[in-house]
Amino acid sequence: MVLHPVLGKLVSKRVVLASASPRRQEILTNVGLRFEVVPSWFKETLEKSYFAAPYEYAVETAKQKALEVANRMHVKHLRTPDVVIGADTIVSVDEQILEKPVDKQDAYRMLSRLNGKEHSVFTGVAIIHCSSKDNQLEMEVTDFYEETKVKFSDLSEDLLWEYIHSGEPMDKAGGYGIQALGGMLVEYVHGDFLNVMGFPLNHFCKKLAELYYPPSKHNVQHKKYDSIPSVDTFENLSDVESESSNFTEHKGASKLDSSGMCSSGSIYNSENSSSVRSGFMVPLENRNGMPENATRLPSKILELMDGFRASKALFVASKLKMFDHLKNKGPLKAVDIANEVGTSVCGTERLLDACAALGLLEKTPQGYSNTDSTNTYLTSDGEYSLHGYIIHSNDHLWPLFTYLESAVKEGSRQNHRAFGKKAEDLFKDYYHSQEVKQRFMAAMHSIAHLTARDVATAFDLSRFKSACDLGGCTGALAHELVQIYPNLKVTVFDLPEVIANTSYFQPSAQHTAPVTFVSGDFFKDNLPEADLYILSRVLHDWPDEKVHVLLSKISAVCKPGSALLVAESVLDEQKTCPPTAVLQSLSMTEGKQRSGSEYKQLLEKHGFTNVQIKITENLLDVVLCFKTLSP
Ligand SMILES: Cc1cn([C@H]2C[C@H](O)[C@@H](COP(=O)(O)OP(=O)(O)OP(=O)(O)O)O2)c(=O)[nH]c1=O
């Protein structure tokens, strides 16, 4: 999917759409972007005569909408978003700006002006990247606009009034909605249709590409970002990715303080095709080479020092199912939640306040309520719930990490200290305790379900007729695959104890081809036949020797032209990125996280060639390779 790598840059960020427009929400949701909606309170009352051109008004309004939300979220809830997106759509005819009609007469006035003529629809968009430094909000603003020309046919008075009485014009710029009944009024459209609906998606993706994939130093003269970057292969992963990993190093945005003032001095300077600004913060150094702000609190370090408290607060609130109660009954006071879950009122209040401080809850005089992303990810029954993984982190990983010091000294797992059992014995518990098994499967399911779409679409797999997901657990990836590739038959192959417990995790309404579950041990048993084998989150569990055994087994059953898809978090060549994968290594299992070149080497050794790696930035990256004639 071509757009995906660019939008993928937003996956790990807290994205807020500062707009109440259902069309904007729909356009961004349709392309898989996950975001919170916080409608802006900015009143659209800027003095139009101050703007030289109509689009300048739309851009400034979009910017003010986004700034208002960024500031409000920072100040009111101490919950600074990473990215805030604002937009404003206007219709312009004869140099006049038309916004939403205030009543039916106003709608009639607007539609009559548009009747039989061509007009322009401008949407201004502001993308604000926020960060909080010593509790001060810092913002980098990028803005742009898109113009689409629309021509109305000659329309009769009756038709105009009939349209107005439909109620459709009232919440739309220019008094019409091209995407619904209003489409009947339109003779032609020149330009981006979605721009008329309120959000120029294509230009937005190009702007993100400029921000996240800036031209490299070497070819700055030649590289022009008028297209959206597509799949990163192993060969071309190098400089663009590494140079773009830290947003604050990018040119192409203006830096604002929380008052909305641009540090370069200019508050308004928009161009259609680019918005290159100056004004980057460079740490000042005094003569001794000591950063001048050394006496200010180092926020990153403080954040890390407090990280364990934050994690535990999240774990405990999840374990006590506080987010579930709030989803069903919120807003609730601390005393109500304490009564529901059987905890102390004072302890509950402190925990809920901590969750609010961490941005997981909203606190108002009416009580506490979940944020949108808490409803989506933290309640136990949501489709994209991470509850299973959080409970696994609390019950299994937390005790292990308590013994990290011994783990580092001894270079081995600490299961015996954390659980009084050796790792092998603990593993047997998974088979004997139904509760532990379900918890572990729920944890694996959470991650597999959340990453399934990215894994399934990282490469075009439509050429394959059959796939076998080795260690595919609950079938979360398999179900996504059959949905995306209707001609693909997918088999999940996993241990009998796992397969026996998959029914709980199956999607309730199955509109797609069913997935087949087969029990077996991929080290010992024959593998089902397939054109495409999948190993998702399997290889990092095993040391190289075991990986060789498994790969040679797959290679032996793979016919030439068949492929192997590996989904893992791929480390950079320095092995310091991404941090989640690097931190996971501290569990000291006998397996390990590997870099792109390590995966390439392992796979090539077993006759797999044309190794391509796609960095998805959503926990799991994807490696695809093909079996050649002779290993
Ligand atoms: C011209 C046209 C506009 N529109 C809509 C897009 C925008 O939602 C709306 C213009 O109003 P806006 O002020 O841009 O947006 P909004 O009020 O809907 O939301 P917010 O201010 O919270 O961001 O008109 C259509 O849906 N179809 C059309 O054909």
TrEMBL record:
Homodimer. This is Uncharacterized protein. It comes from Melopsittacus undulatus. SUPFAM superfamilies: ITPase-like (SSF52972), S-adenosyl-L-methionine-dependent methyltransferases (SSF53335), Winged helix' DNA-binding domain (SSF46785). GO terms for biological process: methylation. The gene is LOC101875672. GO terms for molecular function: nucleoside triphosphate diphosphatase activity; O-methyltransferase activity; protein dimerization activity. Pfam families: Dimerisation, Maf, Methyltransf_2. Keywords: Hydrolase, Methyltransferase, S-adenosyl-L-methionine, Transferase. Residues 401-608 form the O-methyltransferase C-terminal domain. The keyword RNA-binding does not apply. Residues 302-380 form the O-methyltransferase dimerisation domain. Its cofactor is a divalent metal cation. The keyword Ribonucleoprotein does not apply. InterPro entries: COMT-like, COMT_C, COMT_dimerisation, ITPase-like_fam, Maf-like, SAM-dependent_MTases_sf, WH-like_DNA-bd_sf, WH_DNA-bd_sf.
